[in-house]
Amino acid sequence: MLRDLLPLLYFYSMEKPFISWSDFEKIDIRTGTILEAYDFPEARKPAYKLKIDFGPLGTRMSSAQITDRYTKSDLIGKQIIAVINFPPKQIGPFMSECLVLGVVPGRGGVSLLRPDHPLPNGLPIT
Questions:
Q1: What is the pTM of this model?
Q2: 6-15 pLDDT, tens digit each
Q3: 3, CA 20 to 30 Å: which among 9, 77, 83, 103?
Q4: DSSP reduced 3-state for 9
Q5: Contact 38, 96 (CB under 8 A)
Q6: Nearest CA among 68, 27, 32 for reference residue 50
Q7: Separation of alpha carbons 44 and 114, rounded Å
């Protein structure tokens, strides 16, 4: 049992270096709602392609490795939190335009970060 937990303990004990407040302020984190979810068979690790509505900021596409915990139908209409000011990233034949945020528990797949009640899309996270 303890042997199984050692990799997780190591993962959780890794602390990243401090960043400045001005570094944090550069990150644009917003609320959005998943409109569509598609299989992404070309991805190296199982993933979905997501179309996300960010309200007045428009829609963006993202690739998310969340197939262990969510089905495509689970995702439609679900509000999420995402970073929207990374440059677009080519992932195989797909261009990802934002980074959907989630918690990595070590087992069971990524758990999405979400508002705990409905909010307008495109609101900034501070």
A1: 0.86
A2: 555 555 566 8
A3: 103
A4: helix
A5: no
A6: 32
A7: 26
Task: Give the residues across from 53 on adjacent strands.
Answer: 33, 59
Exposure class string for 100-112: b at 16+ Cβ within 10 A, else e: bbbeeeeeeebeb
Domain ranges of the chain: 28-126
What letter does residue 25 receive in the DSSP assignment?
A: H
User: 22: part of which helix (H) or strand (E)?
Assistant: helix 21-25
- Reported as half-sphere exposure (CB side, CA atoms, 13 A), residue 41 has a value of 0
- CATH superfamily ID and name for 28-126: Nucleic acid-binding proteins (2.40.50.140)
pLDDT, average across residues 40-44:
93
Q: Tell me the two tokens of residue 105.
A: 């528990």
Residues contacting 101, CB < 8 A, separation 6+: 29, 80, 81, 82, 83, 112, 113
Q: Which residue, chain included where needed, has tokens 């409905």?
A: 118
- Split at pLDDT 50, 70, 90, the class of 17 is confident
Averaged pLDDT of the chain: 90
